[in-house]
Amino acid sequence: MAAETSIQLTQSDELAERIRARIQDERLTDGAFFMTEADLAEEYDVSRTVAREAVSRLVAIGLLEARKRLGLIVRRPDPLRLLQLGLPSLFDSDQDIAELSMLRYVVEMGAVDLAIRNGSDEQCQLLCELAQEMETAIRSHRPEKISELDIAFHSLLLQMTSSTLIAGMQRVLVNFFDTAYQDYQSDAATGERMIWEHQELAAAIRDRDSNRARTMMQMQSRFWLDQKPTDSK
């Protein structure tokens, strides 16, 4: 029975890949009708069980939607949703959180030049205003407001790249680290560092100074790259 299950899963994986390739090759758009599950089993000469397993894999990643009495509908997968759904399972692993820290570092460092190139003057001004608001919140000892402004600051920075995917990934990652490092802004020295780094980063982007902006992003990123996550269980 175990061997049979293993073969069945392999067939399902292969069929899922063939369906994915077909959707891509035929350039089927979001909302297009694909076929029914029964038609799928017949056309690819597989059992209904194998067809169902293959469809389940593609439904899970958002490439297909199964509708009763209609059949399979092509959908456009949302990679950000998949990332967001998968992140909670990584909270218990320091190694995985370290990998996510490096991913955030790469996303934010790579975004600096794009933000400088594509961001509007109005967005640059808003970034500076958020940095000033963060100073007020830190000096007033308002942790929840600090967290809210930090997320708003970094989300705006990524929006300035003009990339929906990058901006969306940033929101997912920043919210993740906001939960994983809930007390990172609690000491006075850290608060002063945050004020200076955010204001300097905002000013460098406003002045369209890529070298200074990258330097400030490196300094800011170094802190949370070195942190240990709090107990999130």
Automatic annotation (TrEMBL):
Transcription regulation recorded as keyword: yes
Residue ranges crossing the lipid bilayer per the database entry: none
InterPro entries assigned: GntR_C, TF_FadR/GntR_C, Tscrpt_reg_HTH_GntR, WH-like_DNA-bd_sf, WH_DNA-bd_sf
Matching SMART domains: FCD, HTH_GNTR
Keywords in alphabetical order: DNA-binding, Transcription, Transcription regulation
Pfam families, per database record: FCD (PF07729), GntR (PF00392)
Residue ranges annotated for the HTH gntR-type domain, each copy included: 9-77
Single GO MF annotation: DNA-binding transcription factor activity
Xref: Gene3D superfamilies: GntR ligand-binding domain-like (1.20.120.530), Winged helix-like DNA-binding domain superfamily/Winged helix DNA-binding domain (1.10.10.10)
Listed name of the protein: L-lactate dehydrogenase operon regulatory protein
Originating organism: Gimesia chilikensis
Gene that encodes it: lldR_2
